[in-house]
Amino acid sequence: MAGALEGIRVLEFSQIIAGPYACQNLAEMGAEVIKVEPPDGEPWRQFSQFYPGEAKYFQSLNKAKQSLAIALQETEAQEFIHRLVPTCDVVLVNYRPDVAEKLRIDYPTLSAIKKDLIYADNTALGRRGPSGHRPGYDIVVQAMSGMMAGEGKVGDGGEPKLMSSTAVADYGTGLALAWGVTAALFHRERTGEGQMIEATLLQTAMAFQGASIFDLPLADEQSGVYVNRELVKELRARNASYQETLDARGGTIAKILGGVANIYYRPYQTKDGAVVVGALSASLYAKVRSALNTDFLGLADPELGTADAAWMERAQSEVAKIEDYVRSKTTANWVEIFDVEGVPGGPVNFPEDMLTDPQVIANDMLVELDHELTGPQTQVGPIIKMSGTPLETAASPRLGRDNDLYARLAGFSEEEILSLREKGVIL
Predict the structure, then answer these.
(1) Is the dihedral of CA 189, 171, 169, 94 positive or negative?
(2) Which spans in 145-266 are helix H?
(3) Rounded to whole angstroms, how far apart are CA atoms 147 and 144?
(4) What is the distance between the alpha carbons of residues 414 and 427, in angstroms, rounded to a whole number?
């Protein structure tokens, strides 16, 4: 069966994570995605290579694509692209704010060539405003969006720490871009109209923190429960350190969720590893208490809103007892107990554990691929499944593999293709 986007051609001008991940999702839905790279490859190909021109980071984000290696700074290369655009449905650009116009791949230029073009534009911070000219990566947006401070992790010197397990703003923006493209394709199907989609890492990072950024005066006045914003302003005005401001920022709830009286939604150490529980309702709270053999209410205590120092001290003592109890049993013991009690929970795994995890295997979440240069590999499969239009994937392409194919599609003769190659316009 064909994928849902079978027959859609996407021209991808992107690098690193957000844009490539967006287009990988489109490719796995059946779209023909043409990955455009410079003749020496995009930065993610070059970073931590294990084989010339190949890196795991790149291969994990560029599955099921075609490769066009072309020197876009050359006028002939730009004309090549302009001849190819009429055959495409979607163009996605994930470059610094000033690059698209310099390379003549901006929306006004390309939409004039193809009126119903869907053009997806991604930047770090947006094209307008005082930072509209700035490039940026996930770490920059984690900081500027409040996400890094909201996480509350600090180093030994009191400096903020990166949320380093994954590039959350990048991957989230990739999904947002793919979602926007599919919606725009649906709109074009109904109206015949193309359009421009704008995504930013900053907007994604803010969207993922909706409740934290949300300004609701009736709730925010209860500064003992929510973040004391006025205090934060005062501390900043007198040049308090980052650590001092961070410590003062959180109200009672923030501190409790950090572990002072939280027994319901947190990780625990076990005898041989770690487990987590994740309960967010009164009925599940009761099940957690039963599983942990305790009558301590913690977050479920009706006195929580007026908690004082004595309450917090008692809570800390009770939580310590529960933590000791959890450490007395193995992870497997606790998983069995959680199952019996109906508690949402599970073991704390390492990423590499997923390659042999029985739950992952039972649900076909991995794919076995064969890369033309680097051989067999096991990767994470498509992010969703569809019964009528199944998603499929393939290994990432070697650099410039499909140059001749798209040169011919753009109308170049064999002699012209040879000339472009000799001039270094294409690989």
Answers:
(1) negative
(2) 147-151, 168-191, 201-207, 210-213, 217-220, 229-237, 242-249, 252-255
(3) 8
(4) 15
- Domains of the chain and CATH, by start: 9-207+356-422 (3.40.50.10540), 215-269+274-347 (no CATH)
23 in helix, strand or coil? helix
Per DSSP (E only), the strands in 90-144 are 90-94, 118-123
- In this structure, what DSSP letter does residue 336 have? H
Please identify which residue in the block is written with the tokens 């007395």.
328
Which contacts (CB < 8 Å, 24+ apart) does range 359-368 have? 367/393
Instruction: Report how many helices (DSSP H) and strands (DSSP E) the chain contains, helices first.
Output: 21, 13
- CA distances 96 to 136, 292, 382, Å, are 8, 52, 28
What are the phi and psi torsion angles at 3 (to 5°)?
Answer: -75, 165
Q: What is the pLDDT of residues 93-112, one digit of tens each?
A: 999 889 999 999 999 999 99
Q: What is the mean pLDDT of the chain?
A: 93
What lies within 8 Å, CB to CB, of 32 at 6+ separation is: 8, 9, 10, 66
pLDDT tens readout for residues 258-314: 557 889 999 999 999 999 999 999 999 999 999 999 999 998 888 876 778 888 889
Nearest one of 47, 351, 24, 4 to 170, comparing CA atoms: 24
Phi, psi of 67 (to 5 degrees): -125, 125
Contact 222, 159 (CB under 8 A): no
Query: Is residue 282 within a helix (H) or strand (E), and if so which, with residue range?
Result: helix 282-292
Query: How much is the pTM?
Result: 0.93
Sign of the torsion formed by the C-alpha atoms of 284, 287, 292 and 297: positive
